[in-house]
Amino acid sequence: MQGYADRARSAGRTIAFVPTMGFLHEGHLSLFRIGRQRGDLLAASIFVNPAQFGPTEDFDEYPRSLERDLSLLEKEGVDVAFTPTEKELYPEGYETYVHLKQLPEHLCGLSRPVFFSGVATVVAKLFHIVKPHVAIFGEKDFQQLLVIRRMVADLNMDIEIVGGPLIRESDGLAMSSRNSYLSSEQRPAALSLYQALCTAKDRVETGETDVKKIIQEAKSRIEAFPETDIDYMAVCDLNTLEDMTHIDGPALMALAVKVGQTRLIDNMMLKPPDK
Fold first, then answer.
1. Of 12, 84, 236, 256, which one has the fewest beta carbons inside 10 Å?
2. So which residues are the catalytic ones?
3. In terms of DSSP H, where are the helices of the chain?
4. What CATH code is assigned to 2-164?
């Protein structure tokens, strides 16, 4: 992969890169389409990264379908797929990790303490291997996008980071590989996340500024389904992810909820009128 990237760069060609954990869906495909417009060559990686899973999380169960994924990459015009093994990226004796101080201390980082160190580490490694000029990440994982942008800025990586819009299924559920875990009976509970966010957006657009009231209404909607368990729900600053108490400008509402054993995340921008 490094040799391929070196030859492309020597020939003056730009590389756009989309890193994934595979089991691709339309959300991923939308990122490839952005990448196709941003570089001469489009690279993708498929790697289920063990470093970002805690000991009780779903690493072994995480859905995988490499043959199907490669077929989708080919259809989307991806030029090169990098599919390393765990031993190739984390050989015996591996001990170097990337840690951020502040951004992981919010939202998903509170309940998944190893997650963002694992994400930052594997993305840094992938950047050194694939050598992209631009990399595309989905805004569904908004905190991850901020973490990668911060790491790239802090470590002076010469890579442009582009966010791709969150893609939803026809009923509004945010697309995720983990949606495959949901039973048909759990679908209404899963949809309550999107419905709660839409209600919050409507409230803010009609003048509500009290975050406590917005969150309480959203919690009530989600907790009406007994199979839900809220991990977090927050309205926060778009750049720092610090919690807000009143909304006086554009903000992010983000939440993570378990539906049965499936952990789902979602987010939506909240924008007051005339802001």
1. 12
2. 28
3. 2-10, 26-38, 66-75, 86-89, 108-111, 115-130, 142-154, 187-205, 211-223
4. 3.40.50.620
Nearest CA among 251, 254, 189, 243 for reference residue 212: 243
The helices-and-strands tally (H runs, E runs) of the chain is 9, 8
Intervals of CATH 3.30.1300.10 along the chain? 177-268
Fold of 177-268: Pantoate--beta-alanine Ligase; Chain: A,domain 2 (3.30.1300)
| Contact assessment for residue 15 and residue 133, using Cβ atoms and an 8 Å cutoff | yes
Tens of each residue's pLDDT in the chain, 275 residues: 999 999 999 999 999 999 999 999 999 999 999 999 999 999 999 999 999 999 999 999 999 999 999 999 999 999 999 999 999 999 999 999 999 999 999 999 999 999 999 999 999 999 999 999 999 999 999 999 999 999 999 999 999 999 999 999 999 999 999 999 999 999 999 999 999 999 999 999 999 999 999 999 999 999 999 999 999 999 999 999 999 999 999 999 999 999 999 999 999 999 999 86
List the 41-46 sheet strands across, edge first. Answer: 80-82, 41-46, 15-20, 134-138, 160-164
Phi-psi label, residue 114: left if phi above 0, alpha if psi -120 to 50, beta otherwise: alpha
Q: In whole angstroms, what is the distance from residue 131 CA to residue 217 CA?
A: 46
